[in-house]
Amino acid sequence: MSNVFTQVLLAGQDGRIIAEVSPRIGPVSWRLNNVGKTTLTFSKRDPKLTAANLQLANRVLIQFDNGLPAWGGIIDLPSAWARDDYTATVYSGEQLLALRQTAISRVFTDATVGTIFENLVAESSDITQSGVDVGSVWIGEELFTRDYHYANVLAVIQNELIGGLSTADFYIEPSEVGGFIKFTANLYERRGSLKTGLMLIEGHNVSELRRTEQGPVVNSWDFAGADISGDSSSGWGDGRLTSNAIDLTSALAYGLRQGSSVQSSIKDQTSLNNVAATELSRTKEAWNGIEMKGVDRAPALFAGYDVGDRIPLEAYSYGFDGFEATVRVEGREFFPDTGQLGLLVSEDL
């Protein structure tokens, strides 16, 4: 059994802390550029099991004493009543942006990825406060023109800003400040750093490994954007934006593997070129995904690394000649009942 101390704070939608509680905490997950989750289970005999404390959209902050960062989020569905207890589902702070959308026509002209990110986060509070403040933002250099119509803010960030126009990372950071639970949106050129002083070692501080080589491999992409000729009858004529991205090294090794995609919402050449290049970088080689359980033991104590960091891994039982590489932490899942940490990592190509 784990002897990790946790503190669980509840707050209303305004972030003001209203209770400290002691529920049974389910697995707590962090995901790179995505929404994590956990569950809180309360005995029906717990006097703090009240409708006010567990109101949908209330805020939650979980703090650990084993070096893991604080985890914060928002209570949302589903919830479940059982004979003896009640379980609430909590999603990490990124979920706050999934609840907001842009205006009917939000146009950015010659704007960087960071500028678009800052504005989308700030504007998510235009009607009522989203609870997310703008934090540290990597601005970027290239300029893009984008037009959004009732677009989900989280989807824009995930699929366009960091999924197509750049390879940046974002994170909603929770904290407790002056009796309030706060959420801050940060954008990084690349989240995390190379942890050369740490190492994950099979049989020592990691176990239950499962390694998969994944694809598909595509080494030549043809992307088509909008027709900018102004002639609605031109179809696929000279007015259609196109971009080709090819990796000759991959094509020589695996043969030519082509793919195509139509992105009719992209109306400038730079954006289309970026999307094609980003997709090629993801698909030109097979990639190794590894799931494993981590132990809080040197030379890779939990406090020493976070999501986004890169860490050397030695796993000699996995692969034709074993596996020794630097991997990037894509996700972590902490199990409070056992003290173990589930890790999802990928080879850092």
Core attributes:
mainly beta; 4 domains; Elongation Factor Tu (Ef-tu), domain 3; 349 residues; seven-stranded mixed β-sheet; Phage tail proteins - horseshoe like beta roll fold; seven-stranded antiparallel β-sheet
Break the fold down into its secondary structure elements and pairings.
Layout: E1 6-11, E2 17-21, E3 24-25, E4 28-31, E5 37-43, E6 59-64, E7 71-81, E8 85-92, H1 95-98, E9 106-111, H2 113-123, E10 132-137, E11 144-148, H3 153-161, E12 169-177, E13 180-188, E14 200-201, E15 206-214, E16 220-227, E17 240-246, H4 248-254, E18 258-262, H5 269-283, E19 287-294, E20 310-315, E21 323-335, E22 340-347
Parallel strand pairs: 10-13, 14-20, 16-18
Antiparallel strand pairs: 1-2, 1-6, 3-5, 4-21, 5-8, 6-7, 7-8, 9-11, 12-13, 15-19, 16-17, 19-22, 20-21, 21-22
What does this structure look like?
This protein has 349 residues and is mainly beta. The chain folds into four domains: 6-92, Baseplate protein-like domain - beta roll fold (Phage tail proteins - horseshoe like beta roll fold, Roll), CATH 2.30.300.10; 97-188, Phage tail protein beta-alpha-beta fold (3-Layer(bab) Sandwich); 200-214 and 286-347, Beta Barrel (Elongation Factor Tu (Ef-tu), domain 3); 220-283. Helix content is 13%, strand content 43%. The protein has five helices and 22 strands. It has helices spanning 95-98, 113-123, 153-161, 248-254, 269-283; strands spanning 6-11, 17-21, 24-25, 28-31, 37-43, 59-64, 71-81, 85-92, 106-111, 132-137, 144-148, 169-177, 180-188, 200-201, 206-214, 220-227, 240-246, 258-262, 287-294, 310-315, 323-335, 340-347. A seven-stranded antiparallel sheet has the order 2-1-6-7-8-5-3, with no helix packed on it. Strands 4, 14, 15, 19, 20, 21 and 22 form a seven-stranded mixed sheet that branches. A hairpin with a 4-residue loop joins strand 21 (323-335) and strand 22 (340-347). The protein is globular and about 70 Å long. The model has no long low-confidence stretch (mean pLDDT 92).
